[in-house]
Amino acid sequence: MAQLVAKDARVGLDIAADAPPLAPAEPVIDRAHLTRMTHGERDLEREVLQLYATQAAVLLGRMLRADAVPSASAAIAALAHTLNGSSRGIGAWQVADAAAAVEADAADGRDTAASIERLASAIGAAQVHIVDLMRN
């Protein structure tokens, strides 16, 4: 993540904050990986992307509902683990990393609200990218 530094002239302090990069360091979905996994078959690629988009939404919904239940850590970890594997299968590395973070938080008994929020953001970006890929 890029470091944003601003000078506050009123008090003479540098204010540093994490800022997202202007462009992602890697594509939302690694097309080369996806092409390898689908053996270059465009119809299969489209079908896999449609299934993934649906599965990601379903799993996220289940995680969000489970997050409201205090004893649901094992269920959240299992759902995140499933999504991590699916994401790695299509080359959605950012979603996979976010899912791994949710899984780790849940497995360690930490609050998962923030990591699930980051996961939701990554899934949203992937779904937008999938829509764009389906148009082409």
Layout of secondary structure:
Elements (H helix, E strand, L loop, with lengths): L1 E7 L4 E7 L11 H7 L4 H26 L5 H18 L2 H15 L5 H23 L1
Walk me through what this model shows:
This protein is mainly alpha-helical and 136 residues long. The chain has a single domain (25-135), classed as HPT domain (Four Helix Bundle (Hemerythrin (Met), subunit A)), CATH 1.20.120. The protein has 5 helices and 2 strands; from the N terminus they run ββααααα. It has helices at 31-37, 42-67, 73-90, 93-107, 113-135; strands at 2-8, 13-19. The chain has a two-stranded antiparallel ribbon with strand order 1-2. A hairpin with a 4-residue loop joins strand 1 and strand 2. The longest helix has 26 residues, at 42-67. The chain is elongated and about 45 Å long.
**What number of structural domains do the residues give?**
1
Largest sheet, spatial ordering of strands? 1-2
Poorly predicted ranges (pLDDT <50, ≥5 residues)? Answer: 1-23
Which topology does CATH recognise? Answer: Four Helix Bundle (Hemerythrin (Met), subunit A)
Structural Rg: 18 Å
- Mean pLDDT across every amino acid position: 86
Could you tell me the strand content as a percent range? 5-15%
CATH superfamily: HPT domain
Question: How widely separated are the two ends?
Answer: 30 Å
Structural class: mainly alpha
Count of DSSP-assigned helices: 5
Q: Main β-sheet, in a few words?
A: 2 strands, antiparallel
Q: How many extended strands?
A: 2
Please give the CATH architecture: Up-down Bundle
Structural shape? elongated
What is the ordering of alpha helices and beta strands? EEHHHHH
Q: State the helical fraction.
A: 55-70%
